[in-house]
Specification:
The chain is an alpha+beta fold. The protein is built from 11 helices and 7 strands. The radius of gyration is 23 Å and the shape is elongated.
Length: about 350
């Protein structure tokens, strides 16, 4: 049993889920020995007949959430349940969105922490992941080591992740809008430097940004498809060669290369790669909107994004939780800041757990 590849642990458990369902449930039982831990098994897929285990803490998890999860999994109508999308797309509330609706993890300790919070866990035989329902925005910005670090450091890193998410999403659009429509927002010396760098570039600003964003995505995709060591080398060399060659050939200006590089690196701070991929899609739309109507168009499209996210629900829970929550004292342990464990007295009210008290 090896350490998780996608969720490295600096100060915590080193084991991870595997393809064997019974091994995975034993990893959970090893951490949660309470008799309240219940496991219900359902077989899905007409041809594959894949066992799916539903895990929850009786007396804590909302019974309606448990029954709804059982109903959706039992109602899966497919020939096989061999891939992750076969499960995710058939039980979520909304499939017409790029944002993930279910959180998953490779780490049993993080999975068990989700069960203690009052979530429902799902483990599928043959898939080395544990799903946690419902999936909310707050879940996708948490890491397994948040509870292993000092709360001050963990809170700082959590705030940094949210700021980097905003930078990754809006920085290219802000640059396009500032150069094309709002040059008065740029300091005089910086504006002169940008103008001088663009002297020999024959393309518009939005074309420069879009072509570099596309090149960034192509290099990243190529690195993922190649074997590990080769993929890393190809990504580094590809980024350096493409960026340097584009600047030297006066296809893009150096400032655009810096803006796209910062936005790309900032996007990697988001723990969920699926959520990061959704942000990258919207980043293209915001850059195009900025080229059409400047910051006014960017603001309008950002409002559409927030409105769209506010419409989404995951198993009856608002997708924007904890930001869509009431913000009361009981919710302070589940927001951006990771408060000390002894101060988190209650579970998330959005989960409607039967036992709201967590500590004491």
């Amino acid at each position: 049993m090896s350490a998780p590849d996608n969720e490295p642990s600096l100060k915590g458990a080193k084991d991870s889920f595997v393809e064997s369902l019974r091994t995975n449930t034993s990893l959970v039982r090893r951490r949660l020995r309470a008799p309240e831990l219940k496991i219900a098994e359902i077989f899905a897929g007409r041809q594959s007949v894949t066992p799916v285990d539903i895990l929850y803490l009786e007396g804590t998890t909302n019974p309606e959430l448990v029954e709804e999860t059982k109903r959706r999994i039992a109602g899966i109508d497919t020939d096989d349940l061999l891939q992750t999308a076969s499960l995710e797309e058939l039980i979520v509330d909304e499939v017409d969105t790029a944002f993930p609706m279910i959180a998953y993890t490779e780490r049993p300790d993080r999975f068990c922490a989700g069960l203690v919070e009052g979530r429902v866990g799902v483990i599928v035989d043959g898939i080395p992941l544990g799903y946690l329902l419902p999936g909310t925005v707050g879940q996708f910005f948490k890491t397994g080591q948040d509870r292993s670090q000092n709360w001050v450091a963990a809170s700082f890193l959590s705030i940094l992740r949210y700021l980097c998410m905003l930078g990754s999403l809006f920085l290219p659009a802000f640059y396009v809008a500032s150069v094309n429509f709002h040059p008065e927002m740029i300091p005089a010396r910086l504006a002169w430097s940008i103008s001088e760098a663009k002297t020999d570039v024959p393309f518009s600003t939005v074309f420069e940004v879009l072509i570099m964003l596309l090149a960034f995505e192509a290099v990243q995709e190529a690195g993922l498809r190649l074997p590990g060591p080769i993929g890393q080398t190809a990504s580094i060399l590809g980024g350096l060669v493409v960026g340097s060659a584009a600047v030297e050939a006066s296809i893009v200006s150096p400032v655009v290369l810096i803006v796209v590089a910062i936005a790309g690196i900032a996007g990697y701070t988001v723990p969920s790669q699926e959520f990061s991929a959704a942000l990258r899609i919207w980043r293209f739309g915001l850059a195009i909107a900025a080229s059409i109507g400047g910051l006014f168009a960017v603001t309008a499209l950002a409002a559409v994004l927030v409105y769209r996210l506010a419409q989404l629900e995951s198993f009856g829970v608002p997708y924007l939780t904890p930001f869509a929550a009431s913000g009361s004292e009981r919710e302070k342990g589940h927001g951006v800041i990771r408060w000390p464990t002894h101060r988190v007295k209650f579970r998330e009210s959005a989960l409607k757990t039967r036992n709201q008290r967590r500590q004491g």
